Please model this.
Amino acid sequence: MSFIAETDGLIIDLRKNYGGSSLMSAFIASYLLNGSPPVLLNDIYWRQYNMIQSIWSLPFVPGERFGANKPVYILTSQNTGSCAEEFSYSLQAIQRVKIVGEKTAGKANAGSVHRINDHFQAFIPNAYPINPVTKVSWNETGVLPDIECNSSESFEKAYHLLLKQLLEQFSESMEPGRDHLMTEIKNIIDI
Model:
């Protein structure tokens, strides 16, 4: 994350990400947010313990943060699942990112596989997320993109949207040394 901290914009490709850990999701999301105050990203209700685990952004991260005001686009597909959906949904709900691509898989509930007999096993959910902003989850509905398009076209779409957004920002601020970048962006957008 420190390597990309000085870039002007970011595209995160989760089109083939099937999931992971809620804590890793919060860790990466923390780089995209201000450190203070921490942000409640998600609550997870654990049926077995009858308790809610709150997932917060971190007030401290190793290295540099990306910056809370820089544009971030997330690419999704119908294969994007579980924690990759949590990451997308949580940041979309607080309006930190724009999601480009397809509706995701809708696999929100955590659980585990239990063997029934020698030939069958069953996945039994034991926890479900509750987003603090929307008060629901993406289970079965999936994460709906802000800009819907075929996942194979989502990178090019997000890249052009990001360049347009940067061009507008640079035009407004007219930072010294950015003239060549503005010309380059205009040329790419026109292609």
